[in-house]
Structure of Adenylate kinase active site lid domain-containing protein:
Amino acid sequence: MGPPGSGKGTISKRIAQNFGLQYLSCAEFLQDIGTANETEASVLVKSYIDKRMLVPDHVVTGLMLPRLEQLSGHSWLLEGYPRTLGQARALNELCQLDMVISLNIPYETLRERLSDKWIHPASGRVYNMTFNPPRVKGKDDITGEALVQSEDDKPEALMTRLRHYKDVAKPVLDLYKSQGILHAFSGTDTDRIWPYMNSILSAKLPAQQSESHLPPVA
Ligand SMILES: Nc1nc2c(ncn2[C@@H]2O[C@H](COP(=O)(O)OP(=O)(O)OP(=O)(O)O)[C@@H](O)[C@H]2O)c(=O)[nH]1
Ligand SMILES: Nc1ncnc2c1ncn2[C@@H]1O[C@H](COP(=O)(O)OP(=O)(O)O)[C@@H](O)[C@H]1O
């Protein structure tokens, strides 16, 4: 968990790779559904994503939980789910989480990072012009296509997203704190947070697993 731009995607991929976990990003999963063949669910999901609103709890949960059930027998890392108390309660019904990670990053750092963030819309690949720049300025490393900046990452939009994040996340963080599974990390640099996170995860997680690919979306 963490506010927009806190580095959830960046650090999740690092964790999944280092510990051999199946990685599932809720936003990417919903994006794939929204762009898949037209079904009732895909149209609904797309309509919320396009309005930059959270997909209603019962819809996102109805999609995520069966996906997680497909991963039973694997160890996984979820990014961006649960985001609301309703989603957290639904997930609790399915399984007991081992650990919840929360990133506390100062506002000024978020603002600076996001003003420097560029994405490749078709794949969702994310770049930062100082932290992880593309090989060729303005172009995606894999396809060579143009990178764009999101309206959502401009300072005015960021303030609104941040306020919204705090309101929605607080009860979820409180729940996980009461369960004793919340680990919060504060800092301004992913690379400085990483060694602490790595040592806590190393103490909790069994030896690395070898899996690296998710089973395909059904
Ligand atoms: N300068 C700098 N940029 C970073 C650091 N960690 C991540 N970034 C960049 O900051 C931006 C946000 O990182 P993400 O991993 O996309 O963060 P997120 O929390 O998943 O963001 P949302 O998808 O907006 O919720 C990206 O452009 C990253 O490349 C860091 O330590 N320093
Ligand atoms: N857990 C979730 N619950 C509901 N909707 C979600 C969830 N995760 C992602 N989404 C949908 O996917 C979109 C993109 O998510 P994300 O990349 O995390 O960006 P944002 O920070 O704008 O929410 C959201 O605007 C929302 O429509």
